[in-house]
Each structure stands twice: as C-alpha cells, then as structure tokens.
Amino acid sequence: MKTIKNAALFLLSLAVLSTTACGRHNNKEVYYMVAHNLSLPYWQTAVAGFNKAAVQYKVTAKVVGPALYDPQAELAELHKAIAAKPAGILISVADVSLLQPEINAAMAAGIPIITMDSDAAGSRRLFFIGTNNLEAGRIGGLRVIEKLGGKGNVVFFTQPGQPNLEERLKGFKEVFSTRPDIHIMDVVDIKGDARTAFDWTQESMNLTGDKKINAFVCLESAAGVVVGDAIKRSHATDRLLVAWDANPDTLEAIKSGIIDSTISQKPFTMGYVGLRMLDQIFHDPPKSLSKDFSSDAFAPYPSFIDTGSALVDKNNVDVYLAGAGE
Length: 326
Fold this sequence. Notes:
The chain is an alpha/beta fold. It has two domains: 26-131 and 267-291, 3-Layer(aba) Sandwich (Rossmann fold), CATH 3.40.50.2300; 133-264 and 313-324, Rossmann fold (3-Layer(aba) Sandwich). 46% of the residues lie in helices and 17% in strands. The protein has helices at 2-23, 41-57, 71-83, 96-108, 133-148, 163-176, 194-204, 223-233, 248-256, 267-283, 317-324, and strands at residues 30-34, 60-64, 88-91, 113-116, 128-130, 152-158, 182-189, 215-218, 240-244, 261-264, 304-306, 310-312. The chain has a six-stranded parallel beta sheet with strand order 2-1-3-4-5-11, sandwiched between helices. The longest helix is centred in the N-terminal third of the chain and has 22 residues, at 2-23.
C-alpha cells in the first residue's frame, strides 16, 4: 500500500513539474536565428525547425539575415539582434573573422549564443549544433575515389573562409592524400553566386588530356544543380558530380542521373534542437556565461551536437524524395 502511495505521489510531482515547465513560457520570450543565404531551400528547412520548436514552447522566434551570401549583412543583423536583448541567439557563421568579435560581445552581455551549421570554434559561444563537416568531407572523398577508380582530376566549388566549407574540403583532402593519382586541379571561390560555378564548368569542358576535369565537387548547397546543368549542356556523360544537401532539385537530378550523389544534412534538426537548447539555457542559466566550458570536464553543455550526415545516391534517393514531400 505504501509503495502504491509513493508511486502516486511521484506521478503527481511529475505532473506538477510538467505543468510548471509548460507554463513558464510566453510570447515575450524572443529567440533569434541569424543566418545567410536564407533564400536557399536548405535554410527554409532550418527555419521550419526553429519555428516548430517556438510554436511548441509558445515563444517568439525571429529569423534574420541576408537572402544571399553576404557576411557583412549578416554581421549587421547580428548586431541588431544583440541590441534587442533576446533570450538567446542561434547563428550560422559565414565569416569567423567578422562575426566572432560580435559573438563574444553578446556572450559578455549575458546573451547565450549557440552556433549551428557553421561554427566559430574560437569564439565564446556555448557550443555548436550541426554536421561533423570533416567526416562528411571524408564520406564525399571516398565516393569520388570509388567512382573515379582512384585516378583523376577534381575541382571544388566553395566559399573560402566559411568554417563548415573549410572543414569539408579538409575531409576530402585527407582522403585524397592516400591516393596520389587523385589531383585537385582547382578550388574555385564562387563568391556566393552559383552562376560562377556554371560558367567555370562550361569553360572547363574544353580541357583535354592531363588537364581534363573528371570530377566536380560542390561544397555548398546552391551550385550542384547549376553545375549539373552545365555538364548536361555539354553532353559530357563521363564527368562525375558530387553535390551537397538534399534539396528537392538536387534529389531529382540524382534520380535522373545528372548528379551522382550528394551529402545530406539535417537543417530542420539544427533549428529545432537549437531553439530548445537556448530555451533550456535561458530558464536554467549557468552562473556565468564568461566561463570557458570547453575546458571544463564537468560542463553542463557539450562542445558539439552532431546532427548527422549521409551519402545520397540512386540507391536511396527515393527515400529522401519521399521525405522532402512531407
């Protein structure tokens, strides 16, 4: 009888705690997502995750940042967000040198900052939520080696200075270092404009012999489909194209055979988990945000939450296409 009574009291206490937790929120509690390239499907998916968590928690979510790749514009939006003194900020870092000082300033002002998608590891941010980009690059590198038979010339399309893209490139290079017959012919800065990748690909189709480009790798989300279009127009069926992210148009290009494969990420999860973690920190804050939790063996926060990545090709693309339609 005593056991039943104790169990009933325990269940009652859980119900009280649950009610208290649900009632602690209100729409005056504001969380910001600060990003760049917000016009891309990838970011629209991340925003959906952020907004879903806000609806569940009955708090206010605000998403700010430039529609295209513009680190200066992102910096300006971050500055405005900090001035609004929100409950927390989730940010994808386009340029560490520009954004890190502002991230540190926000933390010093008592505003919790979590990075997502692209990190600023040397900043005072609490932790990073996103892809293990180094490992994702290795996955892509192994695919290129497999499809080229361990021999060929490769070109990358990227945006130098963006931390997540740098990590991806590093992962590819690590894998390629074991295959001396794989040559990186160029790392092209598309400067946030996928048309640069299209033009470069078209021009390269005339290269022959030792200079022929056998594989194109797009380290960011926008270039894959346009590079595929350039290859298709040239009727170059012997070229390999590896893209990034599971956007619907990228998936369709894999299904049709224009793109060989892509590396998928989980932007919805990044946004969703990011707001939930910020909410937890806001309602149960550490004694000080100025502490370096990365060197604390008893830190209440992880250094990195890996949301996962995977290779998508013709074998599993239908699964991803079905998910994209939900």
